[in-house]
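ingest -> validate -> predict -> emit
validate: passed (alphabet ok, no gaps, 164 aa)
predict: started
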Amino acid sequence: MAETQDDIEVTEESGGKSKLLIIIIAVLLLALAGVGAMLFFAGDKSVEEAEVAIVKQTPIYYALDKPLIVNFGDQSQGAVRYLSVKLKVMARDQTVIDAFTLNEPAIQHELLMLLLGQKYDKLNTPEGTKVLQQQALSTINEVLKAEKTSGELESVYFTSLLMQ
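emit:
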């Protein structure tokens, strides 16, 4: 009787090993299928590009304290008109914001020169203000680049744009 129990136990152990082997093979096949599906659906993006897209820094905003004001007297058929602009800038690196505050007088000067060159009738349209926004961004980034700043601003936002 003891011999039959030993035979049964040996038989059960070999059956347990084969079940374990089948489970391991099934898990490996599922894992390989999952990796294959991930690579298939991921397309041409590499893993590094996916990580860069996920790790985007939070935006940092900085507002100019005083509005920039220019006169449109010569450009508006003798009527007294002026433009007042308040703006905020956005970057994703604090060193860029620090460089902006350090060079704020030069940036304000360049922005005033940009605003003085604008035409009242063109700025009175949504397209004109969008163009001015892009010009302001490139003007500020040129000043920062001239000062050898490692990054650049990402956006300029007009928080107030008053034309009278």
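The longest helix spans residues 2-42.
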